[in-house]
Amino acid sequence: MIWKDVLIIDYFNFKRGQRLIDADIVGGDIPYISSSKEKNGRYAYISPPDFMERHENKLTIANSGSVGFFFYHPYEFVASDHATVLWPKDDSMVLNENIALFLKPIFETVKPKFNFGREISDNRIRKLMIKLPFEDENSKNPDWNYMMIQISQLKKAIDFQTIFHVPTNYAIKTENWHCFRLNNELFKIYRGTRLTKETRLFGNTPLVTAGYLNQGVASYIDPKGMEVYSNCITIDMFGNCFYRDYEFCCDDNILVLQPEFCINLKVALFIISVINLDKFKFSFGRQYRKKHVIKHVIKLPSISISGKQIPDFDYMERIITSTSYSNLLQQFEHKN
Q1: Per CATH, which fold does 178-335 belong to?
Q2: How do residues 250-302 score in pLDDT, each as one tens digit?
Q3: Strands 129-134 and 254-259, how do they pair?
């Protein structure tokens, strides 16, 4: 077996995805792959318009945003113009997870060549080279079998933790759910404090800023002069929504939703799951700000008391308790 430096286009077909503006997105069940490095590049689940080409069992690489992140999609999907779809030219092989896992770190070696200001264009991808294994110098195609064996052996050495699926005990029907405004009906809304480097003094209080990783906790600071919150929900400028049952402070990229009701972990998880369904509407170019949260309406299960609809928090708790991983949630609650 030998390794060769090869042009990507010599062994892979490629096709850029198609532009679809947020205003034209309709919710559905088909993954819409874009330039995110999270969730296998998935931006949202949509009902694609007829002009969008559907793909299956193919690879994608992000052209912009998280440039160079590479993912495998064994399922049906569509791609935005911020992603390029790739698939092997060798018709004698069938792409699978092991081959894709082998290729991922190889393709991602191109990431240092690109950034937000230098994206992967069609012309640039035609010039990109990667290293691939071949059985010998005269082999026509890469050694796909070698790739499969290598990943298979690695998997045997990994101790995967199995989480057993427990069927949900409650059928969720949303037809009779009621619409509630986040502002006033459910929460009081506050904005975080603008900070400078000089005011970020080291301390013990989590500082929450915009971001998905580590739930947006950027550092730990002394919150002198800042509002300290606890047992609240936060939404950042990208629409990332988290529940925080601990004391924290936050910068001005964060909106704090202080509940007008008695909140707990299970109710919070239910509500943030509903709020996060609208996350696809927001991005770096269309940031989630106070003007959006004031108008933001979500549907929740409800009950009628004295002719007025109020959220059915008991039902929300039962739904979360009946999910597949509720035993882990109970362990978390016990530890805290």
Answers
A1: Adenine-n6-DNA-methyltransferase TaqI; Chain A, domain 2 (3.90.220)
A2: 999 999 999 999 999 999 999 999 999 888 888 777 889 889 998 999 999 99
A3: unpaired
Amino acid (one-letter) located at 4: K
> Do the beta carbons of residue 70 and residue 61 sit within 8 Å?
yes
Cβ atoms of 151 and 102 closer than 8 Å: yes
Q: Provide DSSP, 282-295.
A: --SSS---HHHHHH
Q: How far apart are the first and last CA of the chain?
A: 53
Count, residues in the chain: 336
C-alpha count within 13 angstroms, C-beta hemisphere, residue 134 = 14
- Fold agreement (2-156, 178-335): yes
Interaxial angle between packed helices 144-156 and 97-107, expressed in degrees from 0 to 180 and rounded to the nearest 10: 100
Alpha helices in the chain (DSSP H): 8-11, 97-107, 122-127, 144-156, 265-275, 290-295, 313-321, 326-335
Q: How far apart are CA 223 and CA 243, in angstroms?
A: 20
In the CATH hierarchy, which fold is given to the domain comprising 2-156?
Answer: Adenine-n6-DNA-methyltransferase TaqI; Chain A, domain 2 (3.90.220)
Q: 222 exposed, middle or buried (CB, 10 Å; 0-12, 13-18, 19+)?
A: middle
Task: Locate 310 and state its tokens.
Answer: 């109020």
Q: CB neighbours of 161 closer than 8 A, spacing ≥ 6?
A: none
Closest residue by Cα to residue 82 from 18, 158, 163: 18
Following CA atoms 112, 118, 119, 120 in sequence, which dihedral angle do they give, to the nearest 10 degrees? Answer: -60
Q: Which two tokens stand for residue 112?
A: 């240092």
**Which pLDDT tens digit goes with each residue over 199-242?**
778 899 999 998 888 899 988 999 888 999 999 999 999 899 99
Domain ranges of the chain: 2-156, 178-335
Sign of CA pseudo-dihedral 303, 305, 310, 313 = negative
